[in-house]
Design a protein that fits this description.
The chain is α/β, with parallel strands linked by helices and about 525 residues long. The protein folds into three domains: about 60 residues, Helicase, Ruva Protein, domain 3 (Orthogonal Bundle); about 270 residues, 4-Layer Sandwich (Purple Acid Phosphatase, chain A, domain 2), CATH 3.60.21; about 90 residues, Nucleic acid-binding proteins (OB fold (Dihydrolipoamide Acetyltransferase, E2P), Beta Barrel). The chain is about 25% helix and about 20% strand. The protein contains 13 helices and 19 strands. The strands form four sheets. Strands 3-13-14-15-17-16 form a six-stranded mixed sheet, covered by helices on one side. It has a six-stranded mixed sheet with strand order 12-11-10-9-18-19, covered by helices on one side. A five-stranded mixed β-barrel has the order 4-5-6-8-7. Helix 1 crosses helix 2. The longest helix has 20 residues. The protein starts with 5 loop residues before the first helix and ends with a strand. The structure holds 2'-deoxyadenosine-5'-monophosphate, fe (iii) ion and zinc ion (ZN). 2'-deoxyadenosine-5'-monophosphate binds next to helix 13. The site of 2'-deoxyadenosine-5'-monophosphate has 12 residues, from helix 13. Belongs to the DNA polymerase delta/II small subunit family.
Length: about 525
């Protein structure tokens, strides 16, 4: 008997204009002759139905004597799961030789059971969006807006530091007597090395600037190579005799308290954290995506009830020089239409939240508002929640800060290799958490939209920090915050080949919201 994979059923349904409940697909896949069952279901569904529901399928299957016939191993993707390990090594393999290193003794996919496989109870779910700035943009692009956004940054991040030190404004420090102890909270305005190998860091606040000297033999010198311009920090030190400079004794970052205790869900429920699908690129890995979508229909994935997409749904047009040479779909709207078709293969009941990335058709400057009405309409079939980059979303009590991740290029370029690299993207994310800002340095790769408010501040500590963009998979914990950079669904591009970027393509990190453990599924 031919095996009928759930994704093929979904695909067939969507080409005929139907969405389907996940359980309906599961039951169809388990039918003795799925193709025939599908045809009969489509004959029976009411003319105005848009969604094939479980009761439609049951009505058809109950008239079929052999509805208890066994179901084959329907999925072509191999999958391997492994518990949280910051350098996931996942097995490859292309056929039924599937491996599971998890301790769960149950087979990855059971045959025979029909109804139990994917039963979900949406009433147990809760999903709340915080900090979506879509429609809130006030920026007029005037210089004054830049002043406002930096003032807001200094006020709000500074508030996290002012309670920790005895601080004075820059203008007051300038007139304190030589030898005094001084403290200041400010934005990093400039970082320079002196002729004798010390470091001069200029801090700026609303009253002016003041230079702080980190001596090369002080313990804090190691922190200097982590500093980025425009981040907010505090310094304490001793004024030189002429009061023109202060010698740094201590440095403070807004940071995540070490005592942070993440919230967890009350039940065993999982979220797939992915990004960088790049539909429309010649390198979009359609087979890997289909395998992922098929897997989501299996019993092994039955607890995956949320999917977070951290930007770069499509390849876009004109994002990088010579990008056109590698486009499979040249029209941006057609790219989103194709993306929507791929999204329809994901079980209909999975809650999807998505933010844009630098390849998406929204403004490039951050924060990026969520997609406009026209694009929302194109992607409406799966009814995703479309929010700004960045946004915070709370899933059953677990807060997830979603940010596409363009600033990671900046952090990796500026910091020494051992502190931030493409091979360990989660460590670059730790620095953003420590600075409590998703894109501290203005200029370079990261474009900042002038706004009244700084939407890029990490105000509340998230339980999970999810980014993408660098196309490398990595995860780990920083002060109990789970940082995950998802990989991508795009094979190596010519540019990436030229600069030796070897992307982690076709992986889906799955987070258990009850334990915050991560398993990685590989589909390529
Ligand atoms: O970028 C994916 C990663 O590759 C990210 O680290 C930037 C880098 N990248 C890719 N293409 C280019 C070009 N043409 N110039 C500079 N950097 C590049 P993403 O934007 O998500 O495709
Ligand atoms: Fe990308
Ligand atoms: Zn990107």
């Amino acid at each position: 008997m031919p095996l009928e994979a759930p994704a093929r059923i979904v695909s067939e349904l969507t080409t005929r204009g139907y969405n389907a409940e996940r359980e309906a697909v599961t039951q169809l896949a388990a039918a003795p002759n799925p193709t025939a069952a599908l045809e009969r279901v489509l004959e029976e569904v009411p003319d105005d139905a848009l969604v094939v529901r479980t009761d439609h399928v049951q009505a058809v299957l109950s008239t079929n004597e052999s509805a208890d016939s066994t179901r084959g191993d329907a999925v072509g993707a191999s999958s391997a799961s492994e518990s949280a390990d910051p350098t996931p090594s996942v097995s490859t393999g292309a056929d039924s030789a599937r491996t599971s290193k998890s301790i769960d003794p149950s087979p990855v996919e059971t045959g025979g059971s029909t109804a139990a496989a994917r039963s979900v109870d949406p009433s147990k779910r809760s999903l709340e969006i915080v900090g979506d700035m879509t429609g809130q943009s006030t920026g007029t692009g005037e210089y004054g807006d830049f002043v406002s956004v930096f003032r807001d940054r200094l006020d709000r991040l500074g508030a996290k530091l002012r309670a920790r030190i005895n601080h004075r404004p820059a203008s007051a420090i300038q007139s304190m007597p030589g030898g005094s102890e001084a403290g200041m909270v400010g934005l990093v305005n400039d970082i320079r090395s002196t002729a004798s190998g010390h470091w001069l860091i200029e801090l700026e606040d609303a009253t002016g600037t003041f230079p702080w000297l980190v001596m090369k033999d002080r313990e804090y010198v190691d922190l200097v190579d982590e500093l980025l311009c425009d981040e907010v920090l505090a310094m304490e030190g001793t004024l030189a005799d002429d009061s023109g400079i202060a010698f740094v004794d201590s440095m403070y970052f807004p940071d995540v308290p070490r005592t942070h205790e993440p919230s967890t869900a009350d039940r065993h429920v999982q979220a797939a954290l992915i990004s960088d699908v790049h539909v429309g690129s010649e390198e979009f890995m359609v087979d890997a995506w289909n395998a992922f979508a098929e897997w989501l229909h299996t019993e092994q994935a039955q607890h995956v009830e949320y999917m977070l997409l951290a930007g770069d749904m499509v390849e876009g047009v004109g994002v990088y020089p010579n990008q056109d040479d590698e486009l499979d779909i040249v029209d941006i709207y057609e790219q989103y239409e194709a993306f929507s078709e791929h999204l329809k293969k994901v079980p209909g009941d999975i809650e999807i939240v998505m933010i844009p990335g630098n390849h998406d058709a929204v403004r490039l400057a951050e924060p990026q508002p969520g997609f406009d009405e026209e694009l929302r309409e194109i992607m409406s079939a799966h009814d995703p929640r479309i929010v700004s980059n960045p946004s915070m979303v709370t899933l059953e009590g677990v807060s997830v800060l979603m940010y596409h991740g363009v600033s990671l290029d900046e952090v990796i370029a500026e910091l020494p290799e051992e502190k931030a690299s493409y091979d360990e993207p989660h460590k670059a994310m730790y620095h953003l958490l420590k600075k409590r800002h998703v894109a501290p340095q203005f200029g370079g790769h990261t474009r900042l939209a002038p706004e009244e408010k700084d939407y890029l501040i990490i105000d509340e500590v998230p339980d999970i920090f999810h980014t993408g963009h660098v196309h490398k998979l990595g995860f780990g914990k920083y002060h109990n915050v789970l940082a995950i950079n998802s990989g991508c669904w795009q094979a190596q591009t010519d540019f990436q080949k030229s600069v030796n970027i070897d992307p982690d393509a076709g992986f889906a990190p799955i987070v258990d919201l009850n334990t915050l453990d991560v398993t990685v599924q590989k589909f390529s």
